[in-house]
């Protein structure tokens, strides 16, 4: 933690020294169809666009046209946030999203996953197109940890929080790989019927892993990937529920929330049984693009569509909704790990 903090202070000081000051762009919404990141400080009721790029020089730069597809918080310092984009590579903030740094070496490409080592914050793994990239120097330098053939993609990455030398990646062809030595060597431990969309570690035991797929539901392992079981019972009854859009776990109760093509489902027994969470939107008729939970209170649920953000503070009994602050789609949502009033919204423009 100290090493990373000192490095970020060094970068900040260097930029100030070169320019005399940090140049931040205006916080006004761009004309047209603004992109980038929106932040709410009141649980989604109001939003402020935060796209200032931390750059040296007299001309302010922004990430205002960037299509944001995921958020990842540093588990050791929640002020540090990484955002993956659909075309423009990786950015990070060290001040809760008030300003953004472009990551040298990863300035282009589709970032489909980011994982930060919980014991060594300068070690980060990033899934970008066909490659898994790794840094051990707080993003100053990068090395290739894995590469798939042209025509394939790395679509998910996860770090075992109990033993961070164990890394998992999922591919678009359904392959699921495991490394026991921080990415030096890899073994294929499973092939799922469709693309791997997500990797979620159970809060109580990192050997318990839930893998979400693009069209073949959820799978669960209780032994670090040695054996697997499909979690389809009581899910198949819900139309269009085979696609895993997002999976999140209540860190207090252990309940799982599963955003699907149908809507949102909930399991209170680690995936054995599922029930529907009643939404304001019609099941199977509204596309959910993202979902997030308050990590300290799973009763607080958020999801976004192409037009609205929805919030429940009582586990889905009642809902409030607001129009998105842009015409782009609500592609990614996140709740700040230490301040549940603060919600992050990443938006993406989809071609019609």
Number of helices: 1
CATH class of one domain: Mainly Beta
The helix fraction, in percent, is under 10%
Largest sheet: 4 strands, antiparallel
Describe the protein.
- This protein has 352 residues and is mainly beta.
- It has a domain at 233-339: TolB, C-terminal domain (Neuraminidase, 6 Propeller).
- Helix content is 5%, strand content 41%.
- It has 1 helix and 30 strands.
- The protein has one helix spanning 2-19; strands at residues 36-40, 48-49, 52-53, 61-62, 68-74, 77-85, 90-93, 101-102, 111-116, 124-128, 131-135, 143-147, 154-159, 167-171, 175-179, 187-191, 196-201, 209-213, 218-221, 229-231, 244-249, 256-260, 264-267, 275-277, 290-294, 297-304, 308-312, 320-323, 329-335, 343-348.
- The strands form 8 sheets. It has a 4-stranded antiparallel sheet with strand order 2-1-30-29, with no helix packed on it.
- The radius of gyration is 20 Å and the shape is globular.
- The termini are far apart.
Give the gist of this structure:
With about 350 residues, this protein is mainly beta. Helices cover about 5% and strands about 40% of the residues. It has one helix spanning about 1-20, and strands at about 35-40, 50, 50-55, 60, 70-75, 75-85, 90-95, 100, 110-115, 125-130, 130-135, 145, 155-160, 165-170, 175-180, 185-190, 195-200, 210-215, 220, 230, 245-250, 255-260, 265, 275, 290-295, 295-305, 310, 320-325, 330-335, 345-350.
């Amino acid at each position: 933690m100290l090493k990373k903090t000192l490095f970020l202070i060094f970068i900040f000081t260097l930029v100030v020294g070169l320019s005399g000051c940090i140049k931040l762009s205006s916080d006004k919404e761009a004309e047209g169809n603004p992109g980038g990141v929106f932040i709410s400080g009141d649980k989604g009721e109001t939003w402020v666009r935060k796209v200032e790029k931390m750059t040296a020089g007299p001309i302010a730069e922004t990430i205002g046209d960037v299509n944001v597809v995921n958020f990842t918080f540093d588990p050791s310092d929640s002020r540090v946030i990484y955002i993956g984009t659909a075309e423009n590579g990786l950015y990070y903030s060290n001040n809760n999203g008030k300003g953004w740094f472009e990551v040298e070496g990863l300035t282009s490409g589709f970032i489909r996953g980011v994982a930060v080592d919980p014991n060594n914050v300068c070690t980060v793994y990033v899934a970008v197109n066909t490659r898994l990239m790794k840094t051990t120097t707080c993003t100053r330098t990068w090395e290739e940890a894995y590469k798939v053939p042209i025509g394939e993609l790395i679509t998910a990455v996860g770090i075992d929080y109990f033993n961070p030398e164990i890394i998992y990646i999922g591919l678009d062809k359904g392959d699921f790989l495991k490394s026991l030595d921080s990415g030096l060597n890899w073994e294929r431990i499973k092939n799922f019927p469709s693309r791997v969309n997500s990797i979620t570690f159970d809060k109580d035991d990192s050997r318990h892993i839930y893998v979400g797929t693009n069209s073949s539901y959820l799978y669960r392992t209780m032994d670090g990937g040695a054996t697997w079981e499909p979690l389809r019972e009581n899910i198949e009854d819900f139309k269009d529920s085979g696609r895993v859009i997002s999976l999140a776990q209540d860190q207090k109760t252990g309940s799982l929330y599963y955003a699907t093509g149908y809507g949102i489902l909930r399991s209170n027994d680690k995936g054995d049984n599922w029930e529907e969470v009643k939404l304001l939107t019609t099941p199977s008729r509204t596309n959910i693009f993202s979902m997030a939970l308050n990590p300290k209170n799973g009763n607080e649920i958020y999801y976004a569509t192409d037009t609205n953000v929805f919030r429940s503070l009582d586990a889905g009994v009642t809902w409030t909704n607001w129009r998105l602050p842009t015409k782009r789609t609500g592609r990614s949502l996140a709740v700040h790990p230490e301040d549940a009033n603060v919600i992050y919204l990443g938006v993406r423009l989809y071609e019609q």
